[in-house]
Design a protein that fits this description.
213 residues; alpha+beta; Aminopeptidase; 7-stranded mixed sheet; two-stranded antiparallel sheet; 30% helix
């Protein structure tokens, strides 16, 4: 199940948000060796102050965090433009009200393991399906994101291979790329088929209505 939380509402989900920031520290600081700031075991940056929409995968039975990401419009501060401009061709800027950025896609190692007979994990497909559902409901035509080489292989296995933008660069210990994903029904169907997902992954709630506000 995907829980959508607006940045302005995160105080209502303090335990879950704390677990997410801790997970991000494990993924981006410890595993990927990115130059991120970790305080008290949590990774939190200036883009978390921009009222992003968080998508959080939680276990249906326990309510525990499995994975997460955040969405921001490209018309405001975003990581590709402000942190990773070297991944774009010279002088290129991606900015449109119908193009949003997905960032801080993170899962712990155990959530990355595919189920028997699958090439990619359920949680990976669930998060991507959540992005796509929100985009289709909100008039978002494309998602732009920064990801490492391992994630690029996972995305292709999930039927969610992006159009690469510019050239890859080594950031931390990983080759890193920027890519553009077109949000379509066919894209959603391919991701759901790869993950064995049937039906909507989103928990109905008011945050969905504000995704493109």
């Amino acid at each position: 199940m995907i829980l959508c939380i607006n940045g302005s509402d995160r105080d209502q989900h303090q335990d879950l948000m704390k677990a997410m920031y801790q997970q991000r520290a494990r993924v981006f600081s410890e595993r990927m060796k990115w130059d991120v700031v970790v305080r008290d075991g949590m990774e939190y940056d200036e883009f978390d102050e921009q009222n992003p929409l968080y998508l959080i995968s939680v276990d249906d039975r326990t309510g525990r965090l499995r994975g997460s990401l955040r969405l921001l419009p490209t018309t405001g501060p975003n990581m590709l433009r402000d942190v990773f401009p070297q991944l774009l061709p010279s002088d290129q800027i991606i900015e449109s009200p119908t193009v949003w950025e997905s960032s801080r896609f993170s899962m712990d190692v155990e959530a990355m393991a595919p189920l028997p007979g699958r090439r990619v994990s359920y949680v990976t497909c669930e998060l991507i399906a959540g992005i796509t559902e929100i985009s289709l409901k909100s008039g978002i035509s494309h998602i732009v994101s920064v990801f490492d080489a391992a994630m690029y292989r996972v995305l292709k296995a999930a039927g969610a291979g992006p159009d690469l933008i510019g050239s890859g660069r080594k950031i931390g210990v990983c080759m890193t790329y920027a890519g553009l994903f077109e949000m379509t029904d066919d894209f959603l169907n391919a991701v759901c088929a790869a993950g064995g997902i049937t039906g909507s992954v989103l928990q109905p709630q008011g945050a969905l209505q504000n995704a493109a506000a």
